[in-house]
Amino acid sequence: MRIVIVGGVAAGMSAASRAVRQNPRAEVVVFERGEYISYGACGLPYVLGGDVDGFDDLIARTPDQMRARGIGVRLRHEVTGVDAKAATITVVDHASGRSTHEPYDKLLIATGVSAIRPDWAQTDLGGVHVLRDIPDGQAIEASLKNAKRAVIVGGGYIGLELAETLSCRGLSVVIVERDAEVAGRMLDRDYQQRVRAELESNGVEIRCGTTVEGLSGKDGRVTGVQTDHGPIRADVVIVAVGVRPNVELARAAGARIGKTGAVAVNTRQETGVEGVYSAGDNTESTHRVTRRKVHIPLGLTANRMGRVAGVNMAGGDAGFPGVVGSSIFKTFALGAARTGVTQAEADELGLNAASVDVHSTDHAGYYSTAKPIYVRLTAERGSGRLLGAQLICHNHESVKRVDVIAALLHGRGRVQDLFETDLSYAPPFSGVWDVLLVAADRLSREIGKKQE
User: Fold this and answer.
1) Which one-letter DSSP state was computed for residue 450?
2) Quick check: 65 and 41 in contact, CB under 8 A?
């Protein structure tokens, strides 16, 4: 059996590792168009900020280490076509320029996502960047050496993390966001505003409701950003307006592309085309709370999808359980996390939802390092089913409490289940009634009220 994998990062290498473990006799070959495999892209902002020593520290496994496990790895080999009827792929070796056709018995398409570059960002000006992979990070590092002012276009995860990174490196930082607030797709409005306040208190300038229209430059380098509210001077511009799933190969193979724009698969990561699987950031999944198809490209999801695909391609039987949209980020001292759906999302979906907000402390209130923590808990009226949670705290590690809610969401837990959960207690970690338990108690009363 010959298992061919396109893409050598999270999903691809997880799949390769599981496949050789499931079936040691299988030939497993990974084609990666870049120069790196198996690395933690989520750590890129922290290399730039100095919390991680270097880009090489993000690499989990080298090509030689994977080859020692019996996995063939071919770097700078780009797969440009798929013939599902002939069960072959077309591969271009960028080192030699030669094109070959490679056969497969099972094919995994793990092509990930690409950073969206609006028309105005498609430029040859130096100092304009996106941040998706190690070469992107290295290019940004080079641009920062003589920079004094940075503009980040986009107020999502990457933009918020980089705002801290660049500010701590001594740059003047401006975030330009088209929507009304930063973190707009992650949190409800009150919590977005708390994130914005943290950024502004640390000297980051926020310009929301602002659309970028172009760039200015001199001597081949960017000098500013043109917006509908006037120009902004910049030595470095980082474009962080979102990502787009790479579905071209899957489409060429005959796979269906879902309404999310990502590749549609079943729970075994099968596309519906004989022998062709898809996994990772280019692939949609099922949301366990809403039961709808979603595209939420996150590291654990990609690794887990790849693991499932690898087992199944090698003759085993595994299923992907779906997601609840758990995510977390840090900017300066503030940590923010969410899982499930927000109140705004619940309203858009037509769910009969209610939320409560609780302001408490992350440790016992009398403990010296206690910090304010804010929790919004959301549930369905009538059934009492938990729908989601949002947490913000100035001790960023404390928002990992979100995982308690995520675990309950996977089991379609109710508010009462949360209230009855036996959470640990000691003053350095929480109050005797943890903020989640307080929120559950209040939400139980809220959803129990009769609606007029």
Assistant:
1) P
2) no
Catalytic position from the list 42, 168, 208, 393: 42
| Contact in structure between 110 and 12 (CB atoms under 8 Å) | yes
- pTM (global) more than 0.90: yes
Asked if residue 452 has pLDDT above 50, the reply is no
Location of structure tokens 């209130």: 365
Segment 308-361, tens digit of pLDDT: 999 999 999 999 999 999 999 999 999 999 999 999 999 999 999 999 999 999
Long-range contacts of 78-86 (CB under 8 A, 24+ apart): 78/31, 78/33, 79/6, 79/31, 79/33, 79/249, 81/249, 81/252, 82/107, 82/109, 82/249, 82/252, 82/253, 82/276, 84/253, 84/254, 84/273, 84/274, 84/275, 84/276
Q: Report the run of H or E that residue 345 belongs to, with start and end.
A: helix 343-348
Are the CB atoms for 195 and 160 separated by under 8 Å?
yes
Distance CA 236, CA 131 (A): 13
Q: What type of residue is 299?
A: G
Report the alpha-carbon distance of residue 163 to residue 151 in Å, rounded.
Answer: 9
C-beta neighbour count of 397 within 10 angstroms? 10
Q: What's the token pair of residue 437?
A: 């338990």
Whole-number Cα distances in Å, 399 to 111, 326, 407, 441: 32, 12, 15, 19
- State the DSSP string of 107-166: EEE---EEE---GGG----BTEE--SSHHHHHHHHHHHTT--EEEEE--SHHHHHHHHHH
pLDDT at 174 over 50: yes
Average pLDDT for the chain: 96
The Cα-based distances of 258 to 284, 291, 297 in angstroms read 7, 14, 15
Active site residue 42: yes
Distance of CA 292 to CAs 402, 414, 436, Å?
Answer: 22, 20, 27
246 Cβ neighbours under 8 A, 6+ residues apart: 111, 112, 113, 114, 282
Give me the sign of the Cα torsion angle 39, 43, 46, 51: negative
Q: How confident is the model over 98-124, as pLDDT tens digits?
A: 999 999 999 999 999 999 999 999 999
**Ramachandran angles phi, psi of 387, nearest 5°:** -115, -30
